């Protein structure tokens, strides 16, 4: 069996290089992360061990509890975290990778944007100066190796947060990640949870099931545009949640001292299969979907083929979710205890029916208005 293993950095060192140190005056976490390949699947195993402990920087000017850094601020969840934080009066700084199209909308909202890259650990420390709380919503891009941002980058971020005295760290994970070591991203999320717990940082871990916003691009828009809707024959059920509700509950948890050090799971009111979601979209759109069903068995075969070549290994890692889709997994949990702990009313959580009804009502009204304007302009011409 071929195997690869590497050590993760124990200290953020000179730009462009990472070194290991055993000096007790430096950050001292040690972790190993190994990819073990067999003939049948690719596994991820990780171990974490706290060393002598990272030493916080000398006390200086106290930071305000309202100063937060959002990592992954341009993503589906990240932008809702930013908006909610600003609405609630927080001073928001956003860590954003340098990009051709600047994240001007974040500045327009009132946030401060700093350029940094989790895949370049030397860029991280400056973003944490004056920060009280880090909220980590980031994930790697589809074209990147999963380990680059979601493991190595997160370990560097956690180490730096510890060394610089960050007061609280919020990490978003995936529900059931501890039950699917065959899926690299889920195993990495679970390993990161453990690394954060062992770091000694005051933290909150939030596992998520699925976002309602993702349904729009995957099902709603193709149905309206009369394009193919891709689905599977899997029985997996997902309790989708509106990212606005995720953001709201996050800040309730952030202010609740009883939640410190806990692992929470946020789930929507009901778990849905792919076919049930498509049927719901058809009802609100008033038209049938052109559904193309991809058997899970095909995804499995595709994954096996992509694992044959080094340059397609990352595609195979992402196709590993086919293993989850074929396992009768239910991505949902009862939320009564969580609502009680947070002191919120579960009736205030948006249902998928309400979310999709509002979306289709608004979009169909806009389409109708555009059509009316088009006809009216024809008269003048």
UniProtKB/TrEMBL annotation:
Name the InterPro entries for this protein: HCF244-like (IPR044256), NAD(P)-bd_dom_sf (IPR036291), NmrA-like (IPR008030)
Q: Which residues form the signal peptide?
A: none
* Domain called NmrA-like: residue spans: 67-316
Any GO BP annotation: lignan biosynthetic process
Keywords assigned = Photosynthesis, Photosystem II, Plastid
Q: What is its main location?
A: plastid
Query: What domain of life does the native source organism fall in?
Result: Eukaryota
Q: Which CDD domains match?
A: SDR_a5
Pfam families the record matches: NmrA
List the GO cellular component terms: photosystem II; plastid
The subcellular location is: Plastid
UniProt protein name: NmrA-like domain-containing protein
Organism source for this protein? Prunus yedoensis var. nudiflora
